[in-house]
Amino acid sequence: MIDAPRGYKGRTTRAAVILGLTGVAGYVDPFLGLLVLILGLGLLWSSDAWTRSTKLLATALVVLNPLAFVLFGVSGRMGPIEVLVLLAAGVALPVMAAVRLLRTTRPAGTP
Asked: Per-block average pLDDT, block size 10, for the chain (111 residues)?
């Protein structure tokens, strides 16, 4: 087994935590949410700590909720129940992505 270089684990943890915070950041300020999303996805896709399929899953989980808000908002069919479900999903989905990333982090140098 190859040991991870110094700082490797910290960088992957930061990427997962930043992606996990995208939902909350988006509720605080949409511009801040967009910046956090771009930063988190940049860290995710520039890292060798995860397989391509894990990166795709995390990206889908993080981007799904803002996309759903846009689609429901454009259609004009958002009632109070839909808003509550989307608000809950906006926190839960990015956290699920972060947990998945933290659980599947592989050591540096692993193919």
From this structure: 52 90 90 94 92 95 85 76 86 94 78 59
3-state secondary structure of 110: coil
What is the Cβ-side half-sphere exposure of residue 80, based on CA atoms within 13 angstroms? 0
Would you state the structure tokens that stand for residue 4, as one six-digit string? Answer: 């991870």
- Residue 44 is classified by DSSP as H
pLDDT value at residue 1: 40
pTM across the whole model: 0.81
Q: Which of left, alpha, beta for 107 (phi over 0: left; psi -120 to 50: alpha)?
A: beta
Q: E strand or H helix at 104, and its extent?
A: none
Backbone angles phi, psi at 21, to 5 degrees: -90, 0
Neighbours of 33 (CB within 10 A): 19
What is each CA distance from 71 to 55, 84, 111, in whole angstroms?
A: 24, 16, 38
pLDDT at 8: 56
11: its two tokens: 């960088």
